[in-house]
């Protein structure tokens, strides 16, 4: 995987989604990490941790941050991270179809991987 992936969610969503994805796919590609925000964690502390994770994930192709709920603390932290770093994109509304689609197209560049994640999340919601 050339683009790093950071799942930034309320606890325990990111870890649980990664476990499920690993079970479905057999294994996870390298270059993926999660940061779960615990109730009452100071946002500055979580942002510092996410900056460290993103720096380790970025191998020159950027980092795609997936967060669960737009407007909530994890999403606000993700947007603060993107505002302070180059090559960081943020998508909110993380769901399992989004994650699986993205992991199946992990070889794509940041722009195209972002498009695949968006289409996976959107197309995975059906009536």
UniProtKB/TrEMBL annotation:
Taxonomic source organism: Caldichromatium japonicum
Pfam family, any one: EIIA-man
Compartmental location: Cytoplasm
Keywords attached to this entry: Cytoplasm, Kinase, Phosphotransferase system, Sugar transport, Transferase, Transport
SUPFAM superfamilies: PTS system fructose IIA component-like
Domain of life of the organism encoding this protein: Bacteria
Example GO BP: phosphoenolpyruvate-dependent sugar phosphotransferase system
Name the UniProt record assigns to this protein: PTS sugar transporter subunit IIA
A GO cellular-component term linked to this record: membrane
The keyword Lyase is annotated on this UniProt entry: no
Family annotation (InterPro entries): Bacterial_PTS_sugar_comp, PTS_EIIA_man-typ, PTS_EIIA_man-typ_sf, PTS_IIA_man
Keyword 4Fe-4S: no
Boundaries of every PTS EIIA type-4 domain copy: 2-125
A GO MF label: kinase activity
């Amino acid at each position: 995987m050339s683009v790093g992936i950071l799942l930034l969610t309320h606890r325990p969503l990111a870890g649980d989604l990664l476990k499920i994805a690993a079970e479905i796919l057999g294994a996870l590609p390298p270059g993926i990490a999660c940061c779960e925000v615990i109730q009452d964690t100071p946002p500055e502390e979580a942002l510092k941790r996410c900056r460290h994770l993103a720096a380790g994930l970025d191998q020159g192709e950027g980092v795609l941050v997936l967060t669960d709920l737009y407007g909530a603390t994890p999403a606000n932290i993700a947007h603060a991270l993107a505002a302070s770093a180059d090559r960081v994109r943020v998508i909110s509304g993380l769901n399992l179809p989004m994650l699986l689609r993205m992991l199946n197209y992990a070889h794509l560049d940041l722009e195209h991987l972002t498009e695949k994640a968006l289409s996976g999340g959107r197309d995975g919601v059906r009536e």
